């Protein structure tokens, strides 16, 4: 096992600590926080870590391989970069940094509708390999136009988000008056002054904007008008009627993200989705909800032969990825881990974080005597 990362930061927690020092407080807290009292944020990782794996030391070892096939595409590792909104506010140019790193490592990068790079720019960087996550637009024309742009950009997978029927209640963001672009209150200016790398990079790359949504936004909106525009433009509350036209229109693979119940899994199968991501948005929406590993186990047991089941929320390490896959997920995603990487190391952050997770996961496979990630369920201690 050769480390393929900067050995000064051998864990996501090192990156998180460094990112906290380099990012303005309002940006770090937006990234790091869950909702309400952060109960489900912590539960995600804690309960995932109750999963234990069994090694086989005396077996013939023929090498281990992280390569994973998903929707007919071979990726170099069984994890991808989850869609994250407002990325350029947290670290300037971060969607492009992460998309490039994902492309170089041959793993999926999923672009959020509400992040700060456009579908077209990310498609160019990834040569049409990036996935796109759709926040459900209230107006049919807008929905159709965004879907057509994702198709023209050759996105292989469209991810439809279902777990934001209403804004998550996040006390830190309320306290910080979080806004896009950031409100330059005296408090925020003081925070920015203490973070020179963030400030200089923001000067270099300019104020972050919702690049994918720009063509639909009236020019010169003030903050209040921007909030109103967002509220009117999206209706996150999905139902079968709203999903059907998307399935009819989208010829590529279609994934439902934010699934936490058997009922929604059944609906996803009925509506013709190719996959689901069992997710609770990294504990940012329902503090009284379950950790994702719990519904994953139930959903896998009943539906794994009917739909491709993936998972995110709470995964921070190679062992966490192995635990998730041993529990039956076909693929995993992470949101915060990659953003901590970019916050800590800027341009090198994506490459470092992917290299670190690959190295950790490779070590686990070698330790277990597990040839490929699809064999991980054989090592699950039930
Ligand atoms: C700061 C932040 C912003 C997010 N924005 C979006 C988004 O715009 N669209 C989306 O589908 N999910 C969004 N998510 C959820 C992630 O896609 C993913 O489900 C979550 O981060 C997984 O949990 P983890 O951060 O513990 O890995 C966001 C998550 C974070 C942390």
UniProtKB/TrEMBL annotation:
Name by which UniProt lists this protein: Alpha-hydroxy-acid oxidizing protein
Binding annotation for glyoxylate: 30, 135, 170, 281, 284
Keyword annotations: Flavoprotein, FMN, Oxidoreductase
Sites where the protein binds FMN: 83-85, 112, 133, 257, 279, 312-316, 335-336
Gene Ontology molecular function terms on file: FMN binding; L-lactate dehydrogenase (NAD+) activity
Gene3D superfamilies: Aldolase class I
A biological process term (GO) from this entry: aerobic respiration
